[in-house]
Amino acid sequence: MSTDTEPLDLSRDGNDVGTLGDTVARYVFFACAFVTVATTLAIIVVLVDGAVDFFSQVSFVEYFTGTNWSPRAADNPSFGVLPLIWGTLLITVGSALIAIPVGTLTAIYLSEYASPRVRKVVKPTLEILAGIPTIVYGFFALSFITPVLQTFFPGTGTFNAASGAIVVGIMILPMVSSLAEDAMSSVPDSLRNAAYGLGATKFEVSTNVVLPASLSGILAAYILAISRAIGETMAVTLAAGALPQITTNPLEEIQTMTAYMVEIGTGDASVGSIGYQSLFAIGLTLFVMTFLMNVFSMWVRSRYREEYQ
Q1: What number is the average pLDDT over the span 116-141?
Q2: Confidence check: pLDDT of 228 > 80
Q3: CA neighbor of 84 nearest in space, from 226, 224, 263, 220
Q4: Which residues form the ABC transmembrane type-1 domain (predicted)?
Q5: What is the rounded CA–CA span in Å between residue 93 and residue 110?
Q6: How many degrees, rounded to 5, is the angle at CA 76 between CA 73 and CA 80?
Q7: How far is CA 239 from CA 26, 35, 61, 216, 232, in A?
Q8: What count of other Cβ atoms lies within 10 Å of the Cβ of residue 137?
Q9: pLDDT tens digits for 60-96?
Q10: Whose CB has fewer CB within 10 Å in the chain, the N or C terminal residue?
Q11: SS3 label, residue 70
Q12: Where in the chain are the domains?
């Protein structure tokens, strides 16, 4: 009795199922991409529509050159956005001066010096900082950072730019260190071994080989962290205050663009009023600033990218 059996031909049914699955997956992926793009466009449309109403009553010259911001004043409202931009840049620059050097040195340590056991502990610990709610950072600034500043600088107020810059620097530190470490770790070991073969020390390999080779990723990490600092809201609202002014003293109270948006969004400004419409003008200005930073980040990555075989 023959035991041979004819093979079961499932190729046609399998192809049909595979084609159907590929088609469904294609439309699902397209729908996700479409929702992302549509959401972005909707945000832009809302901001532009509200900003058009604002600029129909306030000139561009007054908005971008004025040094007094008091849109809800009853007698003589002023719409010069420079104090808010200055406060935002003060927080951003201050936080970058903290996060960039500390984050870069941390990344070098994790990539070149730390043992695998230490790296497994230190890197996740740093990344936990990114998951802490920003309002917690704000209370940390009020309850710890500001009292420390007042100990060394008695004239420091409860709300001040230095406290906001320090706490935002702590917030963006994990982004700098993690992304920079990823860029350094992607550098081929052949470059390190070649440098060691020429007699270079570990410090020389880290600074003269690894850093230049991973420059594009490191610069992208800097720019993304700065973009995060520009858009930070709750921490600077609690730490830096709500006084729009142009000052070079980091121990004085200031107000950022995002802090003003929180003030208007949760305040008593009536819908349709010029004070309420200023919310959209500030939002559009902030959107353009962060958009330009992201475009610059992509240019840096493409300009300084190193490719290895």
Answers
A1: 87
A2: yes
A3: 263
A4: 85-297
A5: 25
A6: 80
A7: 47, 36, 31, 33, 12
A8: 23
A9: 898 998 888 888 777 788 889 999 999 999 999 999 9
A10: N
A11: strand
A12: 16-56, 78-303
Give dist(CA 169, CA 94) in Å, integer: 7
Distance (Å, whole) CA 228 – CA 302: 21
Taking the C-alpha atoms of residue 261 and residue 279, their distance in angstroms, rounded to an integer, is: 6
Token pair 């594009």 is found at: 216
Record the tokens describing residue 186, joined without a space.
Answer: 């992607």
The set of residues, in sequence order, having a beta carbon less than 8 Å from that of 222 and lying 6+ positions away, is 96, 100, 176
Question: Is CATH 1.10.8.100 the classification given to domain 78-303?
Answer: no
DSSP state at residue 155: T
**pLDDT, average across residues 107-129:** 87
